[in-house]
């Protein structure tokens, strides 16, 4: 047992195990009552003793046992926010950081001045803050500025089981910071909290913690959950199977909420819609007949928005068309979101009822891109006399606990993004989830009473095909941003870093290569120190890299920001980078339509969006900036209109994403002003569209950032071409892949097909598609992407000559680009 004790605990520390003060808290009675029900509350004394006696403590317990909301309160009451710093709590998800800080403030009866949050671009931290919730990325940035984290007395790393990359790195860093702080006598406690999933990565890894940290297990009152496996595993239609299962539960089983796990937003919507059609929850909606009549009429009107490109202002569109746009957008964003009106009493539409159900089904979607307000609906009790059914993605697995779930329907599937380590091509694959997460999902049914979990797969599949645990994120994604951040902290030998799960060498090498080519790292250099002479050469951060590391965006985009200073382009580059860094700014319609009417809606929606995009793309250099010009104009016009919900819905923009873009723009503007001398840009809500010449310069900056993402169109195959050549019709060759790649049909340059382009990323669906396309000129390659060009020997014709005006010898050289050795125009150097 003594091995578990704090190794360096001096006598003094042993004496002051308990912080001197006990901070009084006046909780509201109803809050006190609800927290008393949480399993962790009976463990308070043991939890606090363990924390007091150890440098590092691991707390693990079922989701919903009260870790996130209660442990910060225990520490607060024990005086940890009043001695040598404040309490930090990190969350991998932004939603969690915000909602948990609100919740804890409420429970402690304190204001948000004292229990605050900080996420990538917003926060409410004040000098009075005592408990600070933040995303793991935010704390990582703070480590770069103040390695010893002197502001804090405790750091809680929450949701460690999610194994997000930043959480992993933070744990690695903190394993070194904690002993350093203790040596200084200014102790720092580290608490790692996790659901009951694989803690061995933290406890048994001796490179990480020299002494095995104690694990406090919170026994929660988990009620028994009966697991029902399917006899056979449905091969494809797991969504249909899930639908049938929910219907059966609802029609035949006693009351109790249903939670269904599917893989993505689209599936959530499809299933919600089907369920709502089957068990209509009639709210204050127009009678069906009237609504469909109106719709028919609207379908006939032409819906061309009129956008004045000089100042982005939108001229009023005719009323009918406007309503159409609103309607159809509503369908994509909300897909029949109902039950918004609290004063409506739900009625049962009897004609659609077939079974013995006596109560309506109150269906709610839940996924991470859903707005905060809609997400929080799942915490409220369903309307009187209704059964709750939440159709959710993985978010409901551990980070949010939905009350009163009795039945879980588990498709067993999960959608994960995979990257090819070498090429960076990303694919979303739907795979079996892991045993650990299957059990976690089942556990959701036993929070308030005995429950049932219906697994839509057989026990044989579970036993044979499910991995034990899900993979840590770090081995599934490129690590270029991470390597840059670590080099910035002078952690030069990445392989020696105590990662809980180390990324593989190939990944690190690819990242370093990219960073060298972007100019953020030097070429590998040999150390001159005697003791290091035998070690492999290392790359070091360059001055450009240091600037790039200050921006909280991918290194490719950071390079654009670092270059955007020239020619007053920074405001545009900031806007574009903000747009590129936020997920899914445009509403993307992929829904496979089932009925004729839906197909019509679907088509008119696509047409409408492509008209809007075309208008935004404009002509000349503006048009050649392609999808990035569309993005810039979308952001510019939305800002011009005050970024309203109406505007976003009408123009196919995701409202939540646009609000994020706005915040990120503000943050990047601040950072740019801080790190680039004389940048002096302001956040202009009325950013004028760039001129033609500016658009051209922006294209060059985009190329400098995306230099490794250049693609060139294959020549059109001749009529008698063989199969391989025929496949190259309209295809492109990019520098890293052998297979042909294509411009995504939603790109504004889809028809144009310029010879040379840069792309934001490649996604593999039915083909390899490039997204986020801008056209470039081949003669720019040697200038803006020099590290990818190979220059010839100086040419004899014309011979090198002395250029008096520049006082240097100039010569003419030819160059080739990239692995494919494309010949690009010659340059004078
Ligand atoms: P854990 O971190 O162990 O998963 P939490 O501390 O997040 O547990 O949750 C404890 C309880 O608090 C849960 O039952 C959850 O439903 C409830 N809870 C959390 N946030 C809210 C909220 N915003 N409103 C109401 N209840 C909440
Ligand atoms: Mg939690």
UniProtKB/TrEMBL annotation:
Residues 1-17 have a biased composition (Basic and acidic residues). Its EC number is 3.6.4.13. Residues 48-215 form the Helicase ATP-binding domain. Keywords: ATP-binding, Helicase, Hydrolase, Nucleotide-binding. One of its GO terms (biological process) is maturation of SSU-rRNA from tricistronic rRNA transcript (SSU-rRNA, 5.8S rRNA, LSU-rRNA). GO terms for cellular component: nucleolus. It is an enzyme of class 3 (hydrolase). Residues 234-490 form the Helicase C-terminal domain. Residues 1-17 are annotated as: Disordered. One of its GO terms (molecular function) is RNA helicase activity. Belongs to the DEAD box helicase family. DEAH subfamily. This is RNA helicase. It comes from Mytilus coruscus. The lineage of its organism: Eukaryota, Metazoa, Spiralia, Lophotrochozoa, Mollusca.
């Amino acid at each position: 047992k003594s091995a578990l004790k704090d190794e360096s605990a001096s006598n003094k520390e042993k004496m002051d195990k308990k912080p001197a003060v006990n901070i009084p808290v006046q909780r509201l009675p109803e809050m006190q009552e609800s927290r008393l029900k949480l399993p962790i509350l009976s463990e308070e004394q043991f939890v606090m003793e363990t924390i007091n006696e150890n440098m590092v403590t691991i707390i693990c317990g079922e989701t919903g046992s009260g870790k996130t909301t209660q442990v910060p309160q225990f520490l607060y009451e024990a005086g940890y926010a009043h001695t040598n710093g404040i309490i930090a709590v990190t969350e991998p998800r932004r939603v969690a950081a915000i909602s948990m800080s609100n919740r804890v403030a409420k429970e402690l009866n304190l204001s948000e001045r004292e229990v605050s949050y900080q996420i990538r671009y917003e926060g409410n931290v004040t000098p009075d803050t005592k408990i600070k919730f933040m995303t793991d990325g935010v704390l990582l940035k703070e480590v770069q500025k103040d390695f010893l984290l002197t502001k804090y007395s405790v750091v809680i790393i929450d949701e460690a089981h999610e194994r997000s990359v930043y959480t992993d790195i933070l744990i690695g860093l903190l394993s070194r910071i904690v002993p350093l702080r203790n040596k200084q006598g200014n102790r720092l406690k580290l608490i790692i909290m996790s659901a009951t999933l694989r803690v061995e990565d933290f406890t048994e890894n001796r490179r990480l913690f020299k002494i095995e940290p104690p694990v406090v297990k919170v026994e929660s009152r988990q009620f028994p959950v009966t697991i029902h496996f399917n006899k056979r595993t449905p091969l494809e239609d797991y969504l249909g199977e899930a639908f049938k299962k929910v219907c059966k539960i609802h029609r035949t089983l006693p009351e109790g909420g249903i939670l269904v796990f599917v893989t993505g937003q689209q599936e959530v919507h499809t299933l919600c819609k089907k369920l709502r059609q089957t068990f209509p929850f009639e709210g204050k909606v127009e009678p069906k007949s009237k609504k469909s009549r109106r719709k028919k009429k609207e379908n006939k009107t032409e819906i061309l928005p009129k956008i004045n490109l000089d100042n982005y202002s939108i001229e009023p569109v005719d009323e009918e068309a406007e309503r159409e746009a609103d309607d159809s957008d509503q369908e994509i964003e909300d897909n029949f979101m109902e039950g918004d009106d609290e004063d409506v009493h739900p009625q049962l539409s009897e004609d659609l009822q077939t079974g013995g159900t006596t109560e309506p089904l109150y269906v709610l979607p839940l996924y991470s891109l859903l707005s905060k307000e809609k997400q929080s609906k799942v915490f409220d009790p369903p309307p009187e006399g209704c059964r709750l059914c939440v159709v959710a993605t993985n978010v409901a697995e551990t980070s949010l606990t939905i009350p009163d779930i009795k039945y879980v329907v588990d498709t067993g599937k999960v959608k994960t993004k995979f990257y090819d380590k070498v090429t960076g091509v990303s694919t979303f694959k739907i795979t079996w989830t892991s045993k650990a997460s299957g059990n976690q999902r089942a556990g959701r049914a036993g929070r308030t009473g005995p429950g049932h979990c219906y697994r839509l797969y057989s026990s044989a599949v579970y036993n044979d095909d499910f991995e034990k645990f899900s993979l840590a994120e770090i081995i599934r994604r490129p690590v270029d941003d991470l390597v840059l951040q670590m080099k910035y902290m002078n952690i030069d030998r990445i392989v020696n870093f105590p990662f809980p799960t180390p990324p593989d060498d190939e990944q690190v090498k690819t990242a370093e290569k990219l960073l060298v080519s972007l100019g953020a790292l030097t070429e590998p250099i040999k150390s001159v120190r005697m003791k290091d002479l035998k070690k492999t050469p290392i790359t070091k951060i360059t001055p450009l890299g240091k600037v790039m590391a200050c921006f909280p965006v991918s290194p490719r985009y950071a390079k654009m920001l670092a270059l955007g200073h020239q020619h007053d382009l920074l405001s545009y580059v900031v806007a574009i980078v903000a747009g590129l860094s936020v997920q899914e700014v445009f509403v993307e319609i992929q829904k496979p339509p089932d009925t004729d009417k839906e197909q019509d809606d679907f088509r008119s929606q696509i047409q409408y969006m492509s008209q809007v995009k075309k208008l935004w793309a404009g002509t000349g250099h503006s048009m050649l900036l392609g999808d990035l010009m569309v993005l810039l104009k979308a952001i510019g016009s939305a800002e011009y209109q005050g970024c309203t919900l109406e505007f976003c819905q009408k123009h196919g923009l995701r409202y939540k994403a646009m609000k994020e873009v706005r915040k990120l723009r503000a943050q990047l503007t601040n950072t740019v002003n801080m790190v680039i001398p004389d940048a002096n840009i302001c956040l202009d809500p009325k950013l004028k569209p760039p001129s033609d010449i500016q658009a051209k310069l922006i294209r060059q900056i985009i190329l400098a950032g995306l230099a490794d993402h250049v693609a060139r169109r294959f020549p059109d195959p001749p009529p008698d071409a063989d199969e391989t050549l025929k496949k190259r019709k309209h295809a492109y060759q990019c520098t890293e892949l052998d297979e042909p790649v294509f411009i995504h049909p939603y790109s504004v340059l889809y028809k144009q097909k310029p010879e040379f382009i840069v792309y934001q990323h490649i996604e593999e669906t039915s083909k390899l598609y490039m997204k986020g396309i801008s056209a470039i000129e081949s003669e720019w390659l040697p200038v803006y992407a020099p590290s990818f060009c190979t220059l010839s020997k100086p040419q004899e014709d014309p011979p090198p000559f002395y250029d008096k005006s520049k006082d240097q010898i100039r010569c003419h050289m030819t160059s080739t680009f990239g692995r494919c050795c494309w010949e690009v125009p010659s340059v004078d150097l």
